[in-house]
Amino acid sequence: MPTVQQAVTLTPELVRLDQVSVYRDNRDILKNVDFSLHKNEIVTLIGPNGAGKSTLIKVLLGIVHPSRGKVITPKKNKMAYVPQKFNPSHSLPLRVKDLLDLEKCDRKLRNEIVRDTGILKLQDSKVQQLSGGEKQRVLLARALLRQPDILVLDEPMQGLDIQSEAELYEYVRSLPERYNCAVLMVSHDLQWVMQGTQRVVCLNKHICCSGLPESVQQHPEYLAIFGGQRVPYQHHHDHCAHGDHVEACTHIEHPHIHPEPEV
């Protein structure tokens, strides 16, 4: 695997893929992948469509078994997964609070997560009737209620407006420290990739390059895939959108996501 400048990681290793390959229908889905995730680390997985990102996640979650190679876990990890899409049957009368009740945790923690993900007013809503952005918030809240060692987010910005995206960036950054979990995110949002993560892994069936965002951004294989896009912008969440204007956020000091405005 091509090497670039690596982030300094001192935390314990949670999971490691050792020369993992996955074959399906006589073709390579993943080929000789070496990958590791450490405690309280934020890693973003990028790559073109068909690169094997979803398969790599399924290997980590234990849904897909490698055709070759090993998945090494020093201890049993509790995993939580936020998928790209969640469309339960309309014949299933599932309310938001029913979905959250599937995860048992301390009441204080539940109230904090529900508030910080901006879904307090959605508790009695049917999941099927939520907007795309509301579903993403609910799924994120449910994942955090599991109190996972590893939180996997698959394109979590889908369906969110620009303000909510910015707030979610900051909220995800705060999760390792607040909830003692590692975060693995799949994202096509290069702004997040280059500004909101500690390590970037560029996948195209094999790992093209991996390391610090600013180093990966200069790597030839990254440039071949993404065409030299550079992202200097960084958003710092020090305001909130209330209605049609921006004002200082004073009601909660730590990173959080606001509810969608009522129509």
Percent of sequence in beta strands: 25-35%
Ranges with pLDDT <50 over ≥5 residues? 232-248
User: How helical, in percent, are the residues?
Assistant: 25-40%
Radius of gyration: 19 Å
Give the SSE string: EEEHEEHHHEHEHEEHHEE
Q: What is the mean pLDDT?
A: 83
Backbone shape: globular
Q: Report, as a whole number of angstroms, the end-to-end distance.
A: 50 Å
Number of E-type strands: 11
What is the CATH class designation?
Alpha Beta
Secondary-structure content class: alpha/beta
The CATH architecture would be: 3-Layer(aba) Sandwich
CATH superfamily: P-loop containing nucleotide triphosphate hydrolases
What number of domains?
Answer: 1
Largest sheet: 6 strands, mixed
* Adjacency order of strands in the biggest sheet: 5-6-7-3-8-9
The CATH topology is given as: Rossmann fold
Count of helical stretches: 8
Structural write-up:
Helix content is 28%, strand content 26%. The protein has 263 residues and is α/β, with parallel strands linked by helices. It has a single domain, classed as P-loop containing nucleotide triphosphate hydrolases (Rossmann fold), CATH 3.40.50. Helix 5 links the parallel strand 6 and strand 7. It starts with 12 loop residues before the first strand and ends in a 15-residue tail after the last strand. Keywords: ATP-binding, Cell membrane, Ion transport, Membrane, Nucleotide-binding, Translocase, Transport, Zinc, Zinc transport. One of its GO terms (molecular function) is ATP binding. This is Metal ABC transporter ATP-binding protein. It holds the Pfam family ABC_tran.
